[in-house]
Amino acid sequence: MFDRLREDIRVVFERDPAARSRLEVLTAYPGLHAVAMHRLSHRLWGWHWYWLARVLSHLGRWFTGIEIHPGATIGRRFFIDHGMGVVIGETAVIGDDCTLYHGVTLGGTTWKKEKRHPTLGVNVVVGAGAKILGPILVGDNARIGSNSVIVRDVPAGATVVGIPGRVVARKDDIKNQQRAAVAKKIGFDAYGQTPEMPDPVAHALDCIFDHIHLVDHKLQELDKALKAAGLVPPSRELPEIETIHLDSPTPPGGEGGGRKIPPKE
Description:
- The structure is a single chain.
- This protein is of the alpha/beta class.
- The chain folds into 2 domains: 2-170, UDP N-Acetylglucosamine Acyltransferase, domain 1; 173-265, no CATH class.
- It contains 6 helices and 15 strands.
- The protein has helices at residues 2-15, 22-28, 30-46, 50-64, 174-185, 200-228; strands at residues 67-68, 73-74, 79-81, 87-88, 93-94, 99-101, 105-107, 119-120, 125-126, 131-133, 137-138, 143-144, 149-150, 158-161, 166-170.
- It has a 6-stranded mixed sheet with strand order 3-6-9-12-14-15.
- A hairpin with a 4-residue loop joins strand 14 (158-161) and strand 15.
- Helix 3 runs antiparallel to helix 4 (50-64) and helix 5 packs across helix 6 (200-228).
- It is elongated.
- The N and C termini lie far apart (61 Å).
């Protein structure tokens, strides 16, 4: 138990730059207190001492402002920052290395006695005020934007924002990789600050990068055609952009207008 507490204290230092000392973390971090009390109440719940577990959970809510049902299953290195107003329901499951901010709700959408709360994978971050409702799955390494309302499964590695939540970025998004390659070629970092959040300037730059990539491919095709016709184009070589193929068109209304980058011959 003390080993787990020391691990939870280390997590605070890793994820909160405001933490200054172990004494401060141990005495003035309600998220740490709530998690520690939950671990005890959850053990009582597992022993079928339901009333005592609920009373301890209620005391934890009174002291910290964080309500965690003793039936909820929480993994290791779980961190609640600030914490006031966090609600975690009975059948919620939270994986290792997850982070929740204040005002987050992992709630249910039915009164039936069944799995009715969300399951969070490993290394999920949920922004302040977000609501994740129902027996849905939030995949590993997902990011939930502040004040979002999530009622559908979230793919692993995705960033989701809005009401209802919609995916705005994926870590394995081929189009993002393609834009990064163009940005690297021209010596510009368009993703220095907030690469995963929708931004009008970033969107405009993304469109420019898409166009540059298409122009680069077109020039390569013209160069091949000139050489095939016996004409010798200028010998100046341009740094090549790594071609990243798209297996499927972008959805209607999405970035790039559903264009495909054809493979090189």
